[in-house]
Amino acid sequence: MSANKDIASHPFYERTLESKPIFEGRIISLQVDTVSLPNGETATREIVRHPGAVAVVALLDGKMLVVEQFRKPLEKVQVEIPAGKLDAGEEPEAAALRELEEETGYRARSIRHLHSFSTSPGFAEEVVHLYVTDDLEPGQAHLDDEEFLTCEAITLEQAQAYIAEGRICDAKTLLAVYAWRMYALTGAF
């Protein structure tokens, strides 16, 4: 079966019998659903609701812009590509342009959508929309009040070293580095 158009007729479909809200936060919410399984049994599914996010592979003079920041869930400092959550009603491309300038101080004169992907489909609905640009001009960073980070431009070799060291270990940045490497080898994303 291709798209989710007729998902309810798929033999693996799980029909929701009950949905119970557990937590409503600023960024995520959590619900527990009781579902009917294909074999007629019931099960529970813990589901994290998230508005979605954007991330940008921003190339400047042969280097990629990254930000370094502390990530509390991992209890470590991470190197990541610029990214952020979608605001209510915001289009992904507009969010990508906004987040890029807010975090790096660079504006994209043009930007292209590479792909959208699920981060953890086993328990979360979050989708990240990945964009790429190499058409940058200086702008002005506008960090949120609770956001503390530094921005740097790194080479592909540095990015690969950061992966080996564990400084880059999140999915969106790993995907960005591998896409950038493919671009370096083939000239196409």
Automatic annotation (TrEMBL):
GO terms for biological process: nucleoside phosphate metabolic process; ribose phosphate metabolic process. Keywords: Hydrolase. GO terms for molecular function: pyrophosphatase activity. Residues 48-176 form the Nudix hydrolase domain. GO terms for cellular component: cytosol. Its cofactor is Mg(2+). The keyword Electron transport does not apply. Belongs to the Nudix hydrolase family. This is ADP-ribose pyrophosphatase. It comes from Cohnella phaseoli. The lineage of its organism: Bacteria, Bacillati, Bacillota, Bacilli, Bacillales.
